[in-house]
Amino acid sequence: MDRDSRQTRWEQRTEVPLSVASLIFLGAYAVHVLAPGLPGVWHDVCLTLTMATWGLFVLDYGVRWRLSGRRLGFVRAHWLDTLVVALPLLRPLRIVRLYEVVQRRHGEPRLSLHARVITYAGLSTVLLGFAGALAVYQHERGAPGATIRTFGDSVWWACSTLATVGYGDVTPVTPVGRLIAVGLMACGLALLGAVTGSFSSWLIQVFSREEDERPPGR
Fold this sequence. Notes:
Blueprint: H1 3-34, H2 40-68, H3 72-77, H4 79-86, H5 94-103, H6 113-140, H7 151-162, H8 175-213
Helix pairs in contact: 1-2, 1-5, 1-6, 2-4, 6-7, 6-8
């Protein structure tokens, strides 16, 4: 069996488990951040779950890197997976792949290309916004001069940042918070561009189809 076949089989077998692991990571991280009053043992459980999911992603990345035999070429071709391993904040994006697996369960996507782009971008925006709000809230609460004091403030900030509006009424003041802000700004621009481009392409196709179907002379 060649390398590509083995890598494909591995990816097919691990797609759903890793997507479920992403959900577990997001849930454990949310409990750890939003429920500081829980007994210490529950925070230890949440920390264990987040570290375990990180270990699963590292293992999966290492196996696929070894099966590919491409070394640096694999890293460049799978840049999103590389970021997911390096930055836990992006791990929930694996859930989007689970949605794609469900869409393809009958062999072909159930949605058109444009609808899939808009749906995946929407899912990615919600997941990134929630994870970013959690991370910023964790680092900003209690910081000297912080304007993000509640999780509601953090969610409002994440929404305005991803939408590239940036009202400026609440802003991160810690280095980690500002680094997360830069990442969310870049992701917001990319996702907004994907949705706008796909929607514009769909409109052009609709109008072109109407022109083609119009009787001659009209």
